[in-house]
User: What shape does this take?
Amino acid sequence: MINNFFYYFESAIDIETCNKIIDLGKKNLSPGVTGDSREKQQNLNLIPQYDLTASDLKKNNLNVNDVYVRDSLVSFLDEKWIYDLLQPYIVKANFEAGWNFELDYNEVPQFTMYEKQGFYSWHQDGLGDTTATYKLFNYGITDEIIPKGKQIPQNYTFNTKTVGKVRKLSLTLNLTNPSDYEGGDLLFDVGNHNDKNILKCDIARKQGSIIVFPSFLYHCVSPITKGTRYSLVNWILGRPFK
Assistant: This one.
C-alpha cells in the first residue's frame, strides 16, 4: 500500500522551455511507435476505448478484444539537457512522497501529441515485479516472432542497460497552455479498475506542471475534445520490487 498516489510540482517548467520541447518533439513525430499507439492504424475494425473503465466496457457488452487503447503521435527525445531537467523532480518526488524506490536508470523521454479525439485509455506503465522485467531481444536468437509492421514484443529491449529492470516511477510533464485544448485530463484509478475510485489530476493541466507516480497505477488520458495537447513522459527503472 502506498501513502501517495502521485506527487506534483505545479508550473515547475517555464513556458519557454515547454515550447522548446514542443518544437523539438514535433520535428520527429510519427504514428505511434509502440504497440498500443499503432492500434488505430492496424485495427480499424476496432472501436476506441477512450476513458472507459473495465466495468464500463462490461456494461456496454464489450471486452479488451473489441477496442484499441491509444490514438496519438509520439517521438523520443534522447537529449542530455532533458534528462538533467527532469532528474531533480524525480529524486525529490520519490523521497517526499515516501516511496523511496530504488532507482537506477531513465528510459528515453517520450514526447506525445494528442489531437482531437486523441486519447490513451486505462493502462499501467509497468508492474514492478519480476514478470515485468525487460529481456534482451536478439534477431534470430529470441524465440518471439515480430509480426510485419509491429514492434518487438512487450518487455523486450535492445538496450542492455535496461535488462532485468522494471518501470517503477512514471513522470508526466504537461507542455501545453490549458486554454489551448479541452478534454485530455490525466486520470488515476486508485480502486479495482472500476468507475468508483477515479481521481482527476487537475494540477496536471497547468503548463509546466510535473506529475510523478508509481508505474503500476492504472491511469489514462481522456479524449481531447478541442485543440491539441502536448506532453513529455519519462519512465524510471530499477530492480524488481522484493
